[in-house]
Amino acid sequence: MKKGFALLYTVIFLVLIAFIIGLIMINMASMSITVAKLPENYASIYGNQSIVSLGYMLIMNNQTATTLTYYGDTMYSATVTNQNTLPQGYTLYTVQGQYRIGQNTGTLTMYYLKNSSNNIYCVGWQ
Amino acid sequence: MHNGFSLVELVVVVFMIGILVAMSTGVVYFLLWQYPESLGNIGYINKSYSSVANDLLLVQYTDKISLDEEGVRLYYWDTQDQRFYIKHLSNDKSINYLIDAQTRSVTIMIDNSIYNAHALHEPVPFPKSIVTTPTITTVTLLYPAILEDTQLTPTGTIQCTNSFQLEDRIACTVFTIPTASTATFTYTINSIRDVNLKPYTYPIQTASFPNITIPSLPTFLKENPL
To answer: What is the ipTM of this complex?
Structure first.
């Protein structure tokens, strides 16, 4: 009787321990999913912004290609793939850009218009 | 002990009952008060974060940001269709939005984190193409313009020939100016404003101008025409 009594309590005790550990693990897993989700996407947002800025610098300095590397795992590059001189002082540049931020990579094609006053505007990207 | 239990067994039983009561209290507390903030919201939180990433991307493509009864309204000009398309940010209750319409940037605050994105291109009201006849020169714009205070110098009139209502203003996509006597004569267009009312001034000649082609908007932005 005493042994059965102790055994019942032991079983209940172990089941409860397992249940609580399970709940904690599920909760931790959900937190890790939540935390991991946005930075991965945000890398592409930040990469897009950096590449467009790099395109401005490229054209402003009359360069055709440039690459910036930070800390070994972050890289931005931009290359002028087409330069179309238009009438009335306009020039349309097509720039191919790439970024690598950790494991995240992306490629953009950007279009810049330079006017006769040498002002540069990004007028489209994809 | 005379009832059959030893003192050690009694202590163990009381100890285990105490642990069971404490655990049960903890589990009930977790399920009643902590559950809605954690397990019950896994899908909701992930959806919110997915919305943030999607919102940030939408901001990067936008030409104009404003507010309406549905929340944050974003405008996208398609240079090939020559029309605006609109979208709204997700308007998620768990996300706080801080909007700067002038710089076309949006700051998003969620779970004590702050994320920011701004529009990546400029909706400049420069010529997309120019077609000249002996008397009239027709200028099609790359992006629409507000011509309320625009002047042509040294002399001449700008006449909008294709316009649409953009909130409380009239936006122009095609205008005409008088053809000058020589193709090298240079007018100046003063205070031509983009859709965010940013002013531009630039020279223009009444000579033919090839069509500037930039890609159409991505399909996912072209669901709701203005």
So the answer is: 0.78
